[in-house]
Write a structure and sequence with these properties.
seven-stranded antiparallel sheet; globular; Pnp Oxidase, Chain A; 123 residues; homodimer; 20% helix
């Protein structure tokens, strides 16, 4: 299980999550909020796409992505953060998109990230 | 003035700040905490470097960097975030490093980021 209890606890803390895609002109950073990250299964995250036009174009070219999540105020212990690497795509018009639209009416699609590797950072 | 009152207010909120450098093998993400970011002047940020070995090697090769900062709970208004782009280097053994060592005894150097451009993200 990649997205274990520790990761889920970090996602339970509010904060920004940074998402990196790779474009022809170089890396591109966008952000979402940790509270917007939905754990679809033990190795898959999903979050709403409002804008993210460059992100979507980059993913069509190169699905490799990175993400940073963190929690400085963890009641369970010291400050903690993780670098997640994997692959992602934008999905729309499916059940997952319909489900996220209930909470995020503005979402034109869903970024689905398949997490392949986790590294502890910060501390 | 690039680092204006709005940016300083975001930095005044705790949260992770993501820092991107460009390596020969692709982009590399690390994080620090917004409370660790010191505004040196109206276009310069500094933060302690503990590990950051890959970051330092990347900066020696290519000084171009990006950073994401954000605040979801801003008492002054809605959720807000920024993408900062610029150039950076690691400095050590100077007055700035000595000053940061007082607060961060573990810092082996200081990342100094010259911010050239700001873009609003999130919202």
């Amino acid at each position: 299980m990649i997205l274990d209890a520790t990761i889920r606890a970090v996602l339970g803390a509010e904060g920004s999550a940074t998402f990196l895609t790779n474009g022809a002109d170089g890396p591109h950073l966008v952000a979402t909020w940790q509270s917007y990250l939905e754990v679809v299964d033990d190795e898959t995250l999903a979050f709403p796409a409002g804008g993210y036009r460059v992100t979507e174009a980059n993913l069509a070219r190169d699905p490799s992505v990175q993400m940073i999540i963190a929690d400085k105020r963890s009641p369970a212990g010291p400050a903690i953060g993780f670098r997640l690497t994997g692959a992602a795509e934008v999905q729309s018009g499916n059940a997952l998109h319909e489900r996220l639209k209930v909470k995020y009416s503005w979402c034109r699609g869903v970024v689905v990230m398949h997490v392949k590797h986790l590294e502890r950072i910060l501390g």
